[in-house]
Design a protein that fits this description.
3 domains; 11 helices; Glutathione_S-Trfase_N; four-stranded mixed beta sheet; Glutaredoxin; Glutathione S-transferase N-terminal domain-containing protein; Glutathione S-transferase Yfyf (Class Pi), Chain A, domain 2; single chain; alpha+beta
Length: 294
């Protein structure tokens, strides 16, 4: 048996995103099960699947543990995979990272309430309340403190649980064009450019439905992250590869980019790649291989 990680909608579930990024970035072996926010109440789905859990994310380990809180999951992963630097090795930086993660976990209610995570769009014209501005000011204070102490590029040097905890804040800064200073904006931009973040968002754009209760009544603008390589699904053409770059299964669905055609085993593999091809190392390696070598 393997550990099983239950995740919510990739476009909207900020708590799921935190754990999903850790699992991706640190190559932690888990089986993923997605919980459809539109199918039924999440609490009902989780109580049936993994009692006593009522929320996502939830981790069910092969030895029978059920962990139904994102920070608890992160701590448990750090304990079970001590060879992976989920927390900084330096004691001072590790203490800082734990403080950052804990404050994010318990605070910033105005930002959470007024600006729900929404990776499917970016707005213009949003005016934050005084309470949201106060949350942003506090976030800028602790980000600057951590970056000054560690020297970056992430909050406590290397990427850690603290950064995964704040990835949804970077997403909110992008979605709502929130007013932050240069240091905070640069740190948020690092998240938007991070391949694991880009893979998570690409999946959220093509998997699941648009949930209207997350929408806000503002005009939209282009997503402020890196411009992806242009690609599209196609029904015609001869693929350069015979096996899907992710599963190794025979190809059945096609994508075109730069005049070249590649195959994938299912529509999700194709569509998530088409959103942001260079975010996926297995496909990027395929793209870098001359056609005659495939």
């Amino acid at each position: 048996m393997t550990d099983t990680l239950f995740l919510g909608d990739y476009a909207y579930s900020s708590w799921s995103m935190r754990v999903g990024l850790l699992v991706d970035r640190f190559a932690i072996p888990v089986a993923r099960r997605d919980v459809d926010f539109n199918a039924a109440k999440v609490s009902d789905q989780m109580l049936r699947a993994a009692p006593p859990a009522r929320t996502v994310p939830t981790l069910v380990t092969a030895d029978g543990a059920v962990i139904w809180d994102s920070l608890a999951i992160a701590e448990e992963l750090a304990s079970r995979f001590p060879d992976k630097p989920l927390w900084p090795a330096d004691p001072v930086l590790r203490a800082t990272a734990r403080s950052l993660a804990a404050e994010m976990h318990s605070g910033f209610s105005a930002l959470r309430g007024d600006c729900p995570m929404h990776l499917r769009t970016a707005y213009k014209g949003f005016q934050p309340s005084d309470a949201v501005r106060a949350d942003l000011a506090r976030i800028e204070t602790i980000w600057s403190f951590a970056l000054d102490r560690s020297g970056g590029p992430w909050l406590c040097g290397g990427y850690s649980i603290a950064d995964a905890c704040f990835a949804p804040v970077a997403a909110r800064i992008a979605t709502y064009d929130l007013p932050v200073g240069d240091t905070a904006r640069a740190y948020a931009a690092a998240h938007l450019a991070d391949p694991a973040f880009r893979r998570w968002r690409a999946t959220g754009l093509v998997k699941g439905q648009t949930l209207p209760w997350y929408d806000r009544p503002f005009a939209t603008r282009p997503w402020p992250g890196p411009e992806p390589l242009a690609a599209r699904a196609t029904e015609t053409g001869t693929p350069e590869n015979a096996a899907c770059p992710y599963s190794g299964k025979p190809v059945a669905h096609l994508m075109e980019t730069g005049g070249r055609v590649f195959g994938f085993c299912n529509p999700l593999c194709r569509d998530k790649t088409a959103v942001d091809p260079m975010a996926w190392p297995a496909f990027a390696a395929l793209l870098d291989t001359p056609p005659s070598s495939l």
